[in-house]
Amino acid sequence: MGSIQVLDNHTIDQIAAGEVVERPSSVVKELIENAMDAGATAITVEIKNGGIEYIRVTDNGSGIAKEDMKVAFLRHATSKLHDIDDLSILKSMGFRGEALASISAVSKMECISKTKEALLGFRYSIAGGVGEELEEVGAPVGTTMVVRNLFYNTPVRRKFLKSESTEGSHIEDMLQHLAMARPDISFQFINAGKTKLSTTGSSDLGEIVYRIFGRETKREAFAFQGEGEDVQISGILGTPVLNKSSRSYENFFVNERYVKSDILSKAVEEGYHGYVMQHKYPFCVLHIFIDPAEVDVNVHPAKTEIRLKNTERIREIVSRLVQESLHKREMIPECPLDKPATEIEPPQKLPEVFESSRMKALNEAYNPVPIMNIPKPDLAGNVTEDKAIKEKDIFEIDFDAPIVKETQPRVEQKSEPAIERQVFPGFEQLSFIPEEEKVLSKEARKKYEIIGQIFNTYWIITYHDAVYFVDQHAAHEKVNYEKLIKKYNENKIDSQILSPPIILSVSPSEKMVLIDNRIAFENLGFSFDEFGGSEIALRAVPMEVYFSNEKEMFQEILAELCDLPGKKDIHFVTSQIATMACKASVKGGKKMSREEIESLIDALLECENPYHCPHGRPTIFSMKKTELEKKFKRIVE
Ligand code: ADP
Ligand code: MG
After folding, report:
1. What pTM, to 2 d.p., does this model score?
2. Which tens digits make up the pLDDT trace of 475-504?
3. Peptide bond before 368: cis, by omega within 30 degrees of 0?
4. In angstroms, what CA-CA distances link 563 with 53, 134, 555, 558?
5. Is residue 44 lining ligand 1, measured as CB closer than 6 Å?
6. How far is the CA of 134 from the centre of ligand 1 (A)?
7. Which single residue of 57, 436, 590, 619 could bond 31 by disulfide (Cβ 3.0 to 4.6 Å)?
């Protein structure tokens, strides 16, 4: 007998399942995508044991009709695609018709669903790909999928799973991304009986940021919106107070899908240039809406990596919009006295809108005690065929939902499936307070009261109901920097001839760099000659920095340049100018006269971004009068 055998269907299913179902989070992802495709406006996800033993996804979408129920679990069964030509116009989340077949091949699954038209719902159990007969059950419109004992029949794959807490945190991460992707859908996430995330589906991205990241983040973030050639962008940007040490707080969504993209990261970071310090990254939740034809989402099986056509254009638009929004914004960090600025409060628990309305619907429709046959897992996760469990028990055991109050808004049923839903360019930003009058503006300037200098370094100013602290060095540095950049861009940096020239010794590699970049140095206002051997003569320096420590400045620029490999781009120039600006600025610890500070403040107001020095440190921060009042217990919190 030959050694080649045709695999049986069961084995084929299990192998194929591996491609779709890698871990509990991939199951949750597929089930949520199905719920979204079914037009759900509220989705609850509950897991136990990291999702390995128990996953429940309940939605209020279209439901599955009785005659489709079994078919939905067959491989390549889909209601979303009819022939291959459909592929190009398809906007739904998934269309391969593989998820349910794959998940049910490697778990004990059950589905309860009811359509609007049907009088009753149906329940279908299928374990290891083997299905039972349908049963009638009482259920509201929508679908509940329960997945138990993942990989119970493929022990090798089960061994590859990480700890329950790791698997659970993957799922939580994903839910956070989904909630940010779709602020119009109400999400509930319950892990081991605890509500971890709860959103209302109000379309308010600010609310989502609050729920996920807490009050402090919400307070230091602002909404922005803009567009450019066929691209619409909207989202939330963090002020520099929220800058992080890693990229993990940069959240990108292209056409409402969470994506990872180096190009978008770079674009946003470029936009934040001057607002973040080195090795720091901004906080952002950025939605980009582009023609789906411009995106290839299927590059990566998990669909988090995308390929954009026309990347340069998108990068340019994103970075410009981010920069403009930051410029427009007053960026004075506030200093509450008792709390560190980075403290994050845990998101508040919301009543479970969706489950409560579902319960109410159930109670109304099937009072007093309808029967739903859902097998309960015992503590070991084994299913016991405990028929005729009262619906109430099921909800108490599995659904952990607070009982509905009469005032609770009911979640509307959407009649249209999400496939036909138009992607909306922008969200309601209701929860953001409108911008007040800018403090650093010429208007406000007239009302400043300059109190004086402290520690020979900081200036205290009061305006309206707050006190402002200005760092004289950072402020001066910023003024010099913007002046120099402006002149550089206009090709107008004037030079001051040094007589006699400054003689400097340089290393052979420094000398090479100097000669290679002579033009760049001349554009910056420097001029030098080789002076024989290891010395050079510095003959002219930029006018703006004359009278400061020219020699040290030049040496520093040279050293920075030597450290920089390869091409010297615009960031090279800006960093050289930053060094020049720094060296030419008044230091901390120097007494300044009132006239000097007055003119420095005037000059600061001319800046495009007066809030940060070129290295991203703040020039100014504020403290509200109410903070002082709290400190002195004039007002009680
Ligand atoms: P696909 O999503 O690629 O079509 P799936 O295996 O994920 O394949 O689902 C198969 C079919 O089952 C879907 O096309 C859809 O018709 C139906 N279905 C699955 N989940 C739901 C749900 N939550 N609500 C309504 N219909 C669903
Ligand atoms: Mg699917």
Report:
1. 0.68
2. 999 998 888 888 888 888 888 898 889 888
3. yes
4. 54, 71, 13, 9
5. no
6. 17
7. 57
